[in-house]
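User: quick one, fold this
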Amino acid sequence: MNIRVAQNPYELGKDAGAAAAGIIREAIAVNGSANIILATGTSQFETLRQLTVENNIDWSKVVMFHLDEYIGLPITHPASFRKYLQDRFLSKVPPLKDVWLINGETDPKEECARLGDLITRHPIDIALIGIGENGHLAFNDPPADFETEQPYLVVELDEACRRQQLGEGWFKAAEEVPRYAISMSVKQILRSKYIICSVPDSRKATAIKNCLERPVSNLYPASILQLHSNCTCYLDQSSAGLLTVNITA
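Assistant:
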């Protein structure tokens, strides 16, 4: 794993988004198309902003999947990840070749099967992800399932995860945060050829230290990224504040 530390979230996003754009261009040049995974949440604001302003990407050759979505939450709700991606990414770039969003308003098991079939036919070139305050990847809260081969799962969100969603301002009250979601599995995320992990903010510092400096454990789900050969973790000074490992500025 590579670790890069920027001065602030803006510079973090600029670096991560530019790196992602380079990988997408390369995949298109080599394969004629690029298959990507995008995350949501406040950690991705600047990374996606940079990606949308990058030049010389033929978006008509890009297929997009995303990581997770709440079950039962309307697409019109401010916390909907489909709405997030529409507002912050899809409306900012030309039409993509295909967009496969998770529909949390239909039968969850059938939706997992539908998306699982699709993503197995689209080997992922790059995944843009984040790390939660509880160390989760997507909605794989601790103790995460490192073994399942299923690309998508129905998961129950733990209290730390739900508090984070409330604290970030996506919901007005704790009881509004859904308890269940559809999440991409850990193994499916790791199947990506490249992973760019954007994690700003001091509230993520403990999770970053646990996931990057502790031994790999499903109690710290993002620690599994240590085993990926092409993962770069983009931090800022605040999120990297507790690290003792050697880092690249």
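User: anything notable?
Assistant: The mean pLDDT is 95.
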